[in-house]
Amino acid sequence: MNWWTPQVEATLIAMVQAVVILLAVVVSGALLSMIERRLLALWQDRYGPNRVGPFGLLQIAADMLKIFFKEDWIPPFADRTFFVLAPAIAMASLLLSFMVIPITPGWGVADLNIGILFFFAMAGINVYAVLFAGWASGNKYALLGALRASAQTLSYEVFMGLAVMGIVAMTGSFNMRDIVNAQENVWFIVPQFFGFCTFVIAGIAVTHRHPFDQPEAEQELADGYHIEYSGMKWGMFFVGEYIGIVLISALLVTLFFGGWHGPLLPPIVWFLLKTVFFVILFVLLRAALPRPRYDKVMSFGWKVCLPLTLVNLLITGAMILLIDPGV
Amino acid sequence: MTAADDSQNESATTFSATHAAGQPDVVAELARQFGEAAFTPQTTLTAMPVIWVAREQLRDVLGFLRRVTGPFSMLFDLSAVDERLRTHRRGLPPSDFTVFYQLLSVERNADLMIKVALHERDLSLPSISDIFVNANWYEREVFDLFGIDFAGHPHLTRIMMPPTWTGHPLRKDYSARATEFDPYTLTVKGQEVEQEALRFDPAAWGMKREGEETEFMFLNLGPNHPSAHGAFRIVLQLDGEEVVDCVPDIGYHHRGAEKMAERQSWHSFIPYTDRIDYTGGVMNNLPYVLAVEKLAGITVTDRAKTIRVMMAEMFRINSHLLFLGTYLQDLGAMTPVFFTFTDRQKAYEVIEAITGFRMHPAWYRIGGTAHDLPKGWDKLVQGFVDWMPKRLAEYEKAMMDNAIVRDRTRFVAAFDTQQALDWGVTGPNLRATGLDFDLRKKRPYSGYENFDFEVPTAVNGDAFDRGMLRIEEMRQSVRILQQCIDHMPAGDYKADHPLTTPPPREKMLQHIETLITHFLQVSWGPVLPAAESMQMIEATKGINSYYLTSDGSTMSYRTRIRTPSFPHLQQIPAVMRGGFVPDLIAHLGSIDFVMADVDR
């Protein structure tokens, strides 16, 4: 048994952890489809899916069955390669981002020194999913959706990155674990309130969730970039969107709400509780708000959010220098 | 016949006494301008002057009427009648096809109908689409359904029927029943031909494919699109997301209601009217039965009138609630529609208890209503009246005060009163421009003069005003409902008249004469005296009118249904040029149209 070294043990544990986290994320993404419908129904004076299984919990099984057996149609006028590639990118890029999220002191997939930058890279790649889908579908609505998506994501990613630079400056590290540890006493929501505001907005925009769902805007573009998709390919976009919600919620918790920190309860419970809170917030936003006009969303990004993040960064820098001029 | 003649004279007197009071008589003005000999007057039950004009003078006369003091600034309706089989035409100029133009003057609060006689071998008229812009679609409709040519029309093509159609359905020699045709078949090849015929050709509409620096995108919005509110197609010429121009395409919901009216008895056509504006329920029955009652000479009891008003207002609220939910949904707010549907369910509970049906009760009858109010109706209606105000306040606070809603709708697709009149816009969309033209006040029918309510107006005539105005209208309708509960007159719900259809049941079981009448009316249908009558009402979406021509038979000779949504859609390009796609969606939501009401 001399091959059973501590390194092997550590590798195995890491692998198991990675698989468990992957499964948990995918399952929660899928479950969200049902949870969102139930939550919306709650706020909309109706029941939602409550027929399959207790409290409609098995609705997800029914939906999965349906989606697996649906005809997986590729339009004859579509560009096959990119048409197939798009949903894969949509789901994979967001799934990979979970790698950098420290869930508890002992749990997490990778402890990258460039943690937060890795997420931005993945979010950047995610734009290609929408672009490819819109272009390869050979449909005008899809194209318009893709145009909106690329313009919106590009604009919002600019200050999404800047929004967290305040945190990076305060922590002195891109590493997510360092960031969480730095919040043991004060959560970053307090010193970085404006950073938080802009990050939330950018986060919603990057996941194309309501009210920033311009690329799909059902009433205008009749579902936009995924209009030609059906079956499992459409399902991957769909689950990808929910994974995006979970990811942004988890990031908000990690960056601004002290990650796993919290009194009494074990770290994992705190992390989950906080994440669920933000997920619910996402759904509530969708139930509550109308959709602003596309060009207003863009000008809001450039004219309000970007200056705000820059001012926030400036003040953060000034404060750091004031408190500890020796750095 | 004498009875009908009497009532015709009576009606003519009433007209000059009420509507034209204080205003110069338009017929006399026309006679001064063009000479007495230019016109042939016709006595009708339409409560407006009807004059025949020679084809050569038509454009001059219409141009004059548009400029005269107290101008007739709205072309309210334009259609035609195939007169070739009409027997009762004594005193009228010889005509195979008659095209009629109904003009409306807001200043005079009066109407005028101009008729032009055409011979079947020379079916051509000068187009008036340069005098009245909204004549464009009406002339296309007449061309499509009657085969009458309009010289000088900018784009005279079919509008209701598919471009590949042969024949003109509203002609008398065109069969109305499927059994009179060969069985319908559609092969794959045929389908391709039909689809190809619908392909949009920008050149045919005088549109360029390329601008100075850009190539335009032509986007088919509909006939299958979530925000098209039914089978409606609008082709957009886009520069980026800016709408350079657009072409609405209608007719996908056409089912020939006017043709059906010529093959149904006066009584059995009532259910068809329900389906014209399918969100308006019994409101649709109202102009039809009122017009029929004018032909029959029936005076309806006060109770029947008030019941009709109550149910019509119930449906006005119901329709406006549907509008509000979908309007906000088109702006991207997904929740309100569920709340307004909860309210609509409450309304339907009342409607169902009273009429026995929900969407299409077909509940009004010639001479009254189908039943009396059930026991306990007042508690039901009161429950609804108590429920609504706080809900309306909630919608206003949660949505109309919302910054995003305001941002999406304020100054979007705005037009002023003059533009509205030019395009034939009526109802809440007209009142949103600031003009308080509401027929319930201006020309009360069915006892609206007895009710205390206000006519809300707005200022900007934009998508926001059109939404707010309807919330206010619902409040006023709730007031009317309350007055109905408090002051419902006692008495019969049906008029005691031989042409009341079906006759009062109690009498039918007692008198052999009434039993015979009942039998005839049910099996054959009531026979109405030959005359022409017309009734306009303030329906849910604007002014809806039925212009009936009776040839002394069990069926209508010609039923012209003027619906408000038709001109509202025709106006879209005029207000949307230069807007963005999301503005177009906001505008479509704010018009409040249903395609059944457009295409009939």
UniProtKB/TrEMBL annotation, chain A:
Domain of life, per lineage: Bacteria
Keyword set includes Transmembrane: yes
Membrane topology of the entry: Multi-pass membrane protein
Catalysis: reaction(s): a quinone + NADH + 5 H(+)(in) = a quinol + NAD(+) + 4 H(+)(out)
Keywords, sorted A to Z: Cell membrane, Membrane, NAD, Oxidoreductase, Quinone, Translocase, Transmembrane, Transmembrane helix, Ubiquinone
GO cellular component labels: plasma membrane
Leading EC class: translocase
GO BP terms: aerobic respiration
Keyword Aminoacyl-tRNA synthetase: no
Transmembrane segments: 12-32, 81-101, 113-133, 154-174, 186-206, 242-262, 268-288, 300-323
InterPro entries: NADH_UbQ_OxRdtase_su1/FPO, NADH_UbQ_OxRdtase_su1_CS
A molecular-function term among this protein's GO annotations: quinone binding
Intracellular or extracellular location(s): Cell membrane; Membrane
EC number: 7.1.1.-
Family in the record: Belongs to the complex I subunit 1 family.
Subunit structure: NDH-1 is composed of 14 different subunits. Subunits NuoA, H, J, K, L, M, N constitute the membrane sector of the complex.
Chain's role: NDH-1 shuttles electrons from NADH, via FMN and iron-sulfur (Fe-S) centers, to quinones in the respiratory chain. The immediate electron acceptor for the enzyme in this species is believed to be ubiquinone. Couples the redox reaction to proton translocation (for every two electrons transferred, four hydrogen ions are translocated across the cytoplasmic membrane), and thus conserves the redox energy in a proton gradient. This subunit may bind ubiquinone.
Protein name, per record: NADH-quinone oxidoreductase subunit H
Organism this protein belongs to: Salinicola corii
Taxonomic lineage of the native organism: Bacteria, Pseudomonadati, Pseudomonadota, Gammaproteobacteria, Oceanospirillales
TrEMBL record, chain B:
Coiled-coil boundaries: none
Region called NADH dehydrogenase I subunit D, residue ranges: 215-600
Record-listed E.C. numbers: 7.1.1.-
GO (cellular component) term, any one: NADH dehydrogenase complex
Subcellular location, record wording: Cell inner membrane; Cell membrane
GO BP terms, alphabetized: respiratory electron transport chain
Catalyzed chemical reaction(s): a quinone + NADH + 5 H(+)(in) = a quinol + NAD(+) + 4 H(+)(out)
Domain NADH:ubiquinone oxidoreductase 30kDa subunit: 51-179
Membrane protein topology class: Peripheral membrane protein
InterPro entries attached to this UniProt entry: NADH_DH_suC, NADH_DH_suCD, NADH_Q_OxRdtase_suD, NADH_quin_OxRdtase_su_C/D-like, NADH_UbQ_OxRdtase_30kDa_su, NADH_UbQ_OxRdtase_49kDa_CS, NDH1_su_D/H, NiFe-Hase_large
Enzyme class: translocase
One Pfam family, short name: Complex1_30kDa
Main localization category: membrane
Key words of the record: Cell membrane, Membrane, Multifunctional enzyme, NAD, Oxidoreductase, Quinone, Translocase, Transport, Ubiquinone
SUPFAM superfamilies attached to this UniProt entry: HydB/Nqo4-like, Nqo5-like
Residues covered by region (NADH dehydrogenase I subunit C): 1-191
Family listed: In the N-terminal section; belongs to the complex I 30 kDa subunit family.
Subunit structure and binding partners: NDH-1 is composed of 13 different subunits. Subunits NuoB, CD, E, F, and G constitute the peripheral sector of the complex.
Reported function: NDH-1 shuttles electrons from NADH, via FMN and iron-sulfur (Fe-S) centers, to quinones in the respiratory chain. The immediate electron acceptor for the enzyme in this species is believed to be ubiquinone. Couples the redox reaction to proton translocation (for every two electrons transferred, four hydrogen ions are translocated across the cytoplasmic membrane), and thus conserves the redox energy in a proton gradient.
Protein name (record): NADH-quinone oxidoreductase subunit C/D
Organism expressing this protein natively: Salinicola corii
Source lineage: Bacteria, Pseudomonadati, Pseudomonadota, Gammaproteobacteria, Oceanospirillales
